[in-house]
Amino acid sequence: MANTAFILFFFAFSAILLMSTAVDIITVNQTVTDEGNGTIDSASEVFRLGFFSPGKSKNRYLGIWYMKILPRVVVWVANRDTPLSDTSGVLRVESNGRLVLSDGSGRVIWLTNSTRSVVDNTTVAQLFDSGNLVIRNGNDGDPKNYFWESFDYPGNHLLPTQKIGFDFRKGLERYLSSWRSPDDPAPGNYSFRINIDGYPQLMGYNHSNVIFRIGPWDSVEFSGLRFLEPDQSSQ
Fold first, then answer.
1. For strand 172-174 and strand 226-227, is the pairing parallel, antiparallel, or unpaired?
2. Which are the contacts of 6, defined by CB distance < 8 A and separation ≥ 6?
């Protein structure tokens, strides 16, 4: 009787432990599904990756948000321009280094541009406590060797340790862009980026029109700080 009670306690404790342990990695043999309420939580449960519907929209998006802040604050969205119309979304890691989001019919909704010529079954996707989602070799944690990372593709939030500007090694520009509306995370009219014509300086844009500039940096402050009249015509 005592042994039976101990076994029951052991399994109950193990179940509680498993439920309370954050899963921050998925491998090529695992998927995250919307219908199964699948998520990836960073190790210290700061951020969560999963499916959500913004505002009053019924569309479904794959995004990253703060776990312990209410109401929900979404800091990154994968399929900003290509929403899912239902809860059939499936996220998977491919052995060639890509992260792929598809719908119930198998149609690709969004994928990363991280295809590799060598098939690697140790490829993993990992969500860090910084809010950065990365694809990497499961045996190599060196950031210089990441296949892809969400920090290279900001949305409307800039997180601590995240950078904006040009990365000439990777051949990309990182910049912030507004949501179209609280119900639609597609890129809106406003962006915040570094202009490298002459001395680099931070600039805010409404479409292609400069609405404010902060810079260049003179080692003390951003010189030439000036704000133009705010434009309230769109978001």
1. unpaired
2. none
In angstroms, the Cα distances linking 38 to 18, 41, 53, 81, 190 are 15, 10, 14, 22, 32
What is the SS3 assignment for 9? helix
Mean pLDDT, rounded, for 213-232? 61
* Residues 97-128: tens digit of each pLDDT: 999 999 999 999 999 987 676 778 899 999 99
Asked whether the beta carbons of 90 and 31 are under 8 A apart, the reply is yes
Kindly compute the dihedral angle of the four CA atoms of residues 231, 166, 124, 17, in this order, to the nearest 10 degrees: -50
Handedness of CA 22, 156, 78, 154 (dihedral sign): negative
Please check whether residue 26 is in contact with residue 32, taking contact to mean a CB–CB distance below 8 angstroms: yes
Q: Which two tokens stand for residue 99?
A: 């992260």
What is this structure's pTM? 0.83
Whether 75 and 81 have beta carbons less than 8 Å apart is answered as: no
Helix (H, G, I), strand (E, B) or coil at 6: helix
pLDDT digits (tens, 9 = 90+) for 166-212: 998 888 999 999 999 999 999 999 999 988 887 788 889 999 999 98
Query: Which residues, at least 6 apart from 208, have a Cβ–Cβ distance to it below 8 Å?
Result: none
Coil, helix or strand for 174? strand
The arithmetic mean of pLDDT across residues 213-220, rounded, is 70
Distance CA 112, CA 218 (A): 37
Q: Contact at 8 Å (CB) between 186 and 80?
A: yes
Order of all β-strands in the sheet with 133-137: 25-27, 123-127, 133-137, 148-149
